[in-house]
Amino acid sequence: MPNDVSRKNALVFQFGPVQYDLSARTHLMGVLNVTPDSFSDGGKFFSAEKAIDHALAMVDEGADFIDVGGESTRPGSEPLPLEKELRRVLPVIEKLSGKISLPISIDTYKSKVADAALNAGAVLVNDISGLIFDDAMMQTVARHSASVIIMHIKGTPRTMQQNPQYDNVVLEVATFLGTQAQKAQAVGITQIIVDPGIGFGKTLEHNLQLMRNLHEIAKRGFPLMVGPSRKSFIGTILDLPTSERLEGTAAAVTACILNGAHIIRVHDVKEMKRAAKVADALKS
After folding, report:
1. Which residue among the candidates 265, 270, 277, 283 is catalytic per the annotation?
2. Domains by residue range for the chain, with CATH
């Protein structure tokens, strides 16, 4: 059994020039969607200039990572052509990497996008497919000595909410993430974060079960990221549109932290930084 010191050391990650002890406090990943059609903020930061300004604002508000995505993966969305995704994300990453020292993540499941983004200044790949959709992704991440976030999804963004079913959602998600993490380690990827994929092929009850039982995933030894921000399960519970889910997101963020999350992926950095600080105090 690993002792407390070895567990703590396993959560000290080096992201380029920046080192984070992910066990010390909850870290926040700010969402930067360079898309016209994302479920929450599509079109708001579609130009490179607006995207960079928003990223700098999130840094000022306390973000620890900036996650740049060029393709909407909302339920029902269709895949984006490779060249179009590259045109959206590369100018932002290239310019942003010269302005901030914080780690930049590329939110993509395409190995060619990941390769170009890592060359442009990103240090972390956030793959919603859990390294499944593109056979070359693992080797691409390993070749760059980059870090990876392995997320669970059932189906594809286009089909994932068409009656998803599980026998035991917590066990199936935890097993998938553990298996994919081991495969990533086998090709030489050393810094691995896992994400249960809230809202990606899950019903309301599946999402709630996962958030109640995050410790079952976290106990496998990999840092755990969760992204409940403005998700549809909050809208279902509160009967509110995306623009009015701030308080619901804060409640979900607090629950995730108390149940074992190390990183929270959010749109509203300033507010969730405050919620995380209180949750960390309660947890400690």
Report:
1. 265
2. 4-283 (3.20.20.20)
> Cα separation of 206 and 258, whole Å?
18
Q: Which two tokens stand for residue 78?
A: 């269709």
| Mean pLDDT in residue range 252-269 | 98
- What are the tens digits of pLDDT across the range 1-35? 455 555 567 899 999 999 999 999 999 999 999 98
283 catalytic? Reply is: no
Name the nearest CA neighbour of 222 among 258, 185, 256. 185
Whether 87 is catalytic = no
Q: Cα 125–128–130 angle (5° rounding)?
A: 85
pTM: 0.93
| Sign, Cα dihedral of 136, 142, 143, 149 | positive
Helices in the chain by DSSP H: which ranges? 4-9, 48-61, 82-97, 111-120, 137-143, 169-186, 204-212, 214-218, 232-238, 246-258, 269-283
Burial of 142 (0-12, 13-18, 19+ CB in 10 A): middle
Instruction: Give pLDDT tens digits for 127-186.
Output: 999 999 999 999 999 999 999 999 999 988 888 888 889 999 999 999 999 999 999 999
Distance from C-alpha of 267 to C-alpha of 94, rounded to nearest angstrom: 22
Residues of the chain with pLDDT > 90, as a percent, come to 83
Q: From CA 31, how far away is CA 194, in angstroms rounded? A: 17
**Per the residue annotation, which of 110, 231, 245, 273 is the catalytic one?**
231
Angle between helices 246-258 and 204-212 (to 10 degrees): 40
DSSP 242: G
With a pLDDT cut of 70, the percent of the chain lying above it is 94
The answer to whether 118 touches 106, Cβ cutoff 8 Å, is yes
